[in-house]
Recover the amino acids of this structure.
C-alpha cells in the first residue's frame, strides 16, 4: 500500500517544500545429466538491509514511521533456472524484502554482478532475464524508488540504500550462479485458508456476478510453489501467495520482512538446524493488491466496534478505523506477523511433501520490453491509456493504515467540490489538464502525476514488462504494480489462453503473477472496481482501462514466445527505451557529530540486565550509543570474539548487536547477531547529538539456547567532523538457566 500518510496536509506541504528546494557462461561445462535431474538450478541469498536511523520506511508513506532499529534483517533471495540443453539461456528470479522494486536498482545489481564475473559468465545475465519482485514489506527503509511521488514519500533517494539493495541482489545472484547444477525442479499448488481477507469488498462486489460466481471467495487462496532438490536434498523453494505484508503496523520502527520475511526466516532456520545451510526459501508476492493479513477486520480504535462498512469510518472519522491482526489482543503486531507467517509456512511445507509436477523438457526462456503506457491504444480501435494520475481516495489510505480523514475510500464524485483545500494545494502543484480529468473519470484527480516531471517524473511514463516460461508447466508474469485479486485472475486467464493457443505450455501449466516487479506504478484494479474508487482504484495510475492495457501488453509478450521476436513499436505495443536514472535528491540531514552524556563513553551501559534468566525470558539492556547511519560492525571489526565458521551467525555482513556465550576457557563466542527474530536493536536520539540504544533478546524464542553465562554486546561507529570510529560495549555477564 502507498498513501499520503501521517498528516496529509503536512505531507502535501512537504511536497511543496520539496519542490521549492528543488527549484532553488559461455563454454561452462556441467556434469552429465543425472537420471533424476530435470533442470539446471542455483539458489542464493544475501542481506540487503540499508543504512538505518531516521530513514522513512517505504510502504505506509508516513513521515513519522522511521527505520530506527532492526528486528529481522531484510534479504534478497535469488534463483537461476535453465534447461540443460541450453545452459546459457537462463532466467533469474529474485524476491526482495522491500516495499517495492526499482529498475535503477536492478540495473545497478546487474552491473555489480557482471563486474564480478568472467566475460563469458557476465554475458549470461542482463536486465532482460533478471526479474526482481518485492515482497512489499512495509518495514524496510525507503530511498530507492524510481519516480518522484514515491521518492518524496520517503524524503527522497538515499544512494547508500540503493547500493545496499543492489549489492545484496548481485551477491544473491552470484551465490546462485556458483551453485547452478543439475536439479529436480517441481511445481505444486494448493489453497491457504485463514491467512488473508479482502479489504475492499465493496470494490470486489462491483465485478460481474457471473464472474464472481466462478470463485468461492473474494480472496485468492492460491499458493504456488517451486521446489528445487538434488542428490543432497532440499536446495530451495519459491512460494507465491497473495497477501499484503502489513502485519507490522504503521507505528513499527524496526526493519522487518513482516509475515513473508518471518516465513522465510523460519523455514531457513529449520533447515540450518538440520545442517542444510544452503537452503533458500522465498515467500514472494502475487496478486495481493486488495488483500490484508489483518484477519479481524476494521475496528474503531477507541470502542473496538466494527467500523461502518460504507466509508470504513467510525461515525465519519476514517482515522479511527484500523484493521486488527489475529494477534491484536495477545501480542500486538509482532504476534500477528508470526501467526500469518506461520500459516504461510505450514501450507508451504505441506505442499513440499505432497505430489508434484516435475519441470522437464521444454524451453526456459524470457521476454522483456519497455512500453510507454500513455501511447498504448487498446486493440480494435479501443481507448488509449491515460497519462498517470492519482485520485482523491489515494489519500484516504486503507483500513490497514487510514489517512488523515480529509478524503475517504470510494470518493468518486468529481463534482462534489468536497475538497476545496485539496484542490487549492493541488492546483499550486499542477492543475490537471481537461484531457487528463476526462481520461481518468470517474476518478477525481488529486495529483496530476503524468503532467509533473520535476525534478523527476512523478510516476512512470514507461513500464518494464517481463515474462518467464520455465518448461511447458510454469509461466511467471513480472508485473510492475500491485494488482487486485480479480484483476490478477483475469490477467492469468488471458495469458494462459494465449500460451495455450500458441502451444507454448501444457493444459496443466500454472501462470504466476510476481507482483511489484522491476519498478513501481501503484495499483491495478478491474474496470468495474475502478468505478467504485476505493483506495486501490484511486491509485490505479493509467485510468479505467489500466488492466485491459496490461493484459494486452502481456498477451503480446506471451505470444512472442511463439514468434521468437517482439513486434516493432506500434500504438498497440509502444516499445521505448529504459528511462534514465532519476537524480539523487533527498531531504535528510547528514549525521555530523555524535556526543555522549557527560562522563560516559560510547558503548557504556546505562541499564544492565538482571543476573539470571530462564529460557523464554526477555533480556533488556540500554547503552550510550551513536547514530546507526554511521554504520554497524563487520566480522573484521568485531574484535577478539569467536565467530561460528568465521562469519556472523545470521549470515549478514554486519551487525549492531551480538549475544555472546562464555566458553570454558573464558573467551566469548557469538551465538546470535541482530539478524534473527529473537533479538531487537533500537536506537533513539537524545537531545541534539546524543543517542540511546536498547538491545533485547528473547531467550530461545526461535533459536534454542544452552544454559550458561551470556552477555549482550552493542556495536556502533561514532562520528566527529573529521573521523568515524568503531566502538563497542558489553553488558555484565548473566546466567541463563533452562
Ligand atoms: C478522528 O480520529 C482521530 C484518531 O482517534 C483523532 O485524532 C481525530 O481528532 C479525529 N477527528 C475528528 C474530526 O474527530
Ligand atoms: C482462523 O484463525 C482464527 C485465529 O486467528 C481462529 O480463531 C479460527 O478458528 C480460524 N478459522 C479456521 C477456519 O481455521
Ligand atoms: C501497532 O501495534 C502496536 C503493538 O504491537 C501498538 O502498540 C500500536 O498502537 C499499534 N499502532 C497502531 C497505529 O495501531
Ligand atoms: C508456434 O505455435 C505453432 C502452433 O502450435 C507451432 O507449430 C510452432 O512450432 C510454434 N513456434 C514456435 C517458434 O514456438
Ligand atoms: C569515538 O569513541 C571512541 C571510544 O569511546 C573514542 O575513543 C573516540 O574519541 C570517539 N571519537 C570521537 C570522534 O568522538
Ligand atoms: C467471501 C469472503 O471471503 N468474504 C470475506 C471478506 O472479508 C470479510 C471481512 O472483512 C469476511 O467477513 C468475509 O467472510
Amino acid at each position: 500500500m502507498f498513501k499520503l500518510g501521517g498528516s496529509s496536509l503536512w505531507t502535501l506541504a512537504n511536497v511543496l517544500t520539496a519542490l521549492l528546494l528543488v527549484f532553488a557462461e559461455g563454454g561452462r561445462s556441467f556434469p552429465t545429466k543425472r537420471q533424476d535431474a530435470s533442470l539446471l538450478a542455483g539458489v542464493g541469498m544475501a542481506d540487503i538491509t540499508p543504512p538505518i536511523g531516521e530513514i522513512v520506511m517505504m510502504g505506509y508513506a508516513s513521515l513519522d514511521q522511521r527505520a530506527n532499529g532492526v528486528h529481522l534483517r531484510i534479504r534478497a533471495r535469488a534463483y537461476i533456472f535453465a534447461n540443460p540443453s541450453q545452459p546459457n539461456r537462463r532466467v533469474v528470479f529474485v524476491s526482495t524484502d522491500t516495499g517495492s522494486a526499482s529498475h535503477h536498482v536492478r540495473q545497478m545489481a546487474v552491473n555489480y554482478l557482471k563486474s564480478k564475473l568472467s566475460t563469458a559468465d557476465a554475458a549470461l545475465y542482463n536486465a532482460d532475464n533478471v526479474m526482481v519482485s518485492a515482497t512489499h514489506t512495509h518495514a524496510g527503509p525507503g530511498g530507492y524508488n524510481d519516480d518522484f511521488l514515491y521518492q518524496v514519500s520517503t524524503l527522497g533517494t538515499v544512494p547508500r540504500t540503493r547500493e545496499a539493495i543492489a549489492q545484496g541482489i548481485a551477491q544473491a545472484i552470484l551465490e546462485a550462479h556458483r551453485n547452478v547444477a543439475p536439479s529436480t525442479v517441481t511445481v505444486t499448488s494448493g489453497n491457504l485458508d485463514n491467512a488473508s481477507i479482502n479489504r475492499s469488498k465493496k470494490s470486489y462486489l462491483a465485478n460481474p456476478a457471473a464472474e464472481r460466481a466462478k470463485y468461492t471467495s473474494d480472496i485468492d487462496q492460491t499458493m504456488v510453489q517451486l521446489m528445487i532438490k538434488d542428490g543432497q536434498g532440499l536446495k530451495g523453494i519459491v512460494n507465491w501467495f497473495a497477501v499484503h505484508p502489513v502485519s507490522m503496523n504503521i507505528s513499527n520502527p524496526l526493519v522487518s520482512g513482516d509475515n513473508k520475511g518471518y516465513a522465510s526466516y523460519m523455514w531457513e532456520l529449520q533447515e540450518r538446524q538440520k545442517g542444510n545451510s544452503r537452503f533458500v526459501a522465498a515467500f514472494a508476492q502475487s496478486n495481493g493488491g486488495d488483500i490484508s493479513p489483518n484477519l479481524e477486520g476494521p475496528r474503531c480504535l477507541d470502542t473496538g466496534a466494527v467500523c461502518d462498512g460504507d466509508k470504513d469510518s467510525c461515525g465519519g472519522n476514517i482515522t479511527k478505523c484500523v484493521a486488527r491482526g489475529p494477534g491484536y489482543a495477545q501480542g500486538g503486531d509482532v504476534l500477528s506477523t508470526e501467526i500469518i507467517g506461520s500459516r504461510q509456512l505450514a501450507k508451504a511445507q505441506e505442499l513440499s511433501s505432497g505430489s508434484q509436477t516435475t519441470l522437464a523438457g521444454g524451453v526456459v526462456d524470457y521476454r522483456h520490453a519497455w512500453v510507454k503506457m500513455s501511447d498504448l491504444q487498446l486493440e480494435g480501435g479501443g481507448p488509449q491509456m491515460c497519462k498517470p494520475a492519482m485520485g482523491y481516495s489515494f489519500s484516504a489510505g486503507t483500513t490497514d493504515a487510514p489517512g488523515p480523514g480529509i478524503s475517504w475510500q470510494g470518493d468518486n464524485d468529481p463534482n462534489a467540490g468536497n475538497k476545496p483545500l485539496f484542490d487549492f494545494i493541488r492546483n499550486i502543484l499542477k492543475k490537471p489538464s481537461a484531457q487528463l480529468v476526462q481520461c481518468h473519470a470517474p476518478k477525481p484527480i488529486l495529483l496530476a502525476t503524468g503532467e509533473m516531471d520535476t525534478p523527476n517524473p512523478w510516476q512512470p511514463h514507461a513500464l518494464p514488462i517481463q515474462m518467464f516460461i520455465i518448461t511447458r508447466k510454469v509461466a511467471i508474469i513480472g508485473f510492475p504494480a500491485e494488482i487486485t485479486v480479480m484483476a490478477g485472475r483475469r490477467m492469468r486467464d488471458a495469458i494462459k489462453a494465449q500460451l495455450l493457443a500458441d502451444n507454448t505450455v501444457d493444459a496443466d501449466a500454472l501462470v504466476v503473477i510476481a507482483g511489484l516487479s522491476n519498478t513501481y506504478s501503484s495499483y491495478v484494479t478491474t474496470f468495474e472496481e475502478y468505478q467504485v474508487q476505493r483506495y486501490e482504484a484511486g491509485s490505479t495510475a493509467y485510468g479505467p482501462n489500466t488492466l485491459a492495457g496490461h493484459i494486452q501488453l502481456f498477451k503480446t509478450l506471451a505470444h512472442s514466445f511463439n514468434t521468437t521476436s517482439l513486434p516493432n513499436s506500434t500504438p498497440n505495443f509502444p516499445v521505448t527505451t529504459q528511462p534514465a536514472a532519476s537524480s539523487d535528491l533527498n531531504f535528510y540531514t547528514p549525521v555530523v557529530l555524535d556526543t555522549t552524556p557527560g562522563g560516559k563513553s560510547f558503548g557504556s551501559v546505562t541499564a544492565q540486565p538482571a543476573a539470571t534468566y530462564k529460557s523464554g525470558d526477555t533480556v533488556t539492556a540500554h547503552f550510550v550509543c551513536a547514530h546507526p547511519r554511521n554504520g554497524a560492525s563487520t566480522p573484521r571489526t568485531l574484535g577478539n570474539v569467536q565467530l561460528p565458521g568465521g562469519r556472523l551467525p545470521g549470515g549478514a555482513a554486519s551487525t549492531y548487536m551480538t549475544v555472546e556465550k562464555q566458553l570454558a576457557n573464558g573467551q566469548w563466542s557469538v551465538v546470535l547477531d541482530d539478524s534473527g527474530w529473537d533479538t531487537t536493536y533500537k536506537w533513539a536520539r537524545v537531545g541534539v547529538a546524543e543517542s540511546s540504544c536498547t538491545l533485547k533478546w528473547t531467550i530461545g524464542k526461535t533459536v534454542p539456547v544452552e544454559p550458561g553465562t551470556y552477555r549482550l554486546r552493542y556495536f556502533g561507529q561514532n562520528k566527529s567532523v573529521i573521523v568515524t570510529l568503531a566502538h563497542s560495549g558489553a553488558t555484565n555477564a548473566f546466567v541463563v538457566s533452562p
Observations:
- Residues 235 and 279 are 5 Å apart (CA to CA).
- Residues 328-352 form the longest helix (25 residues).
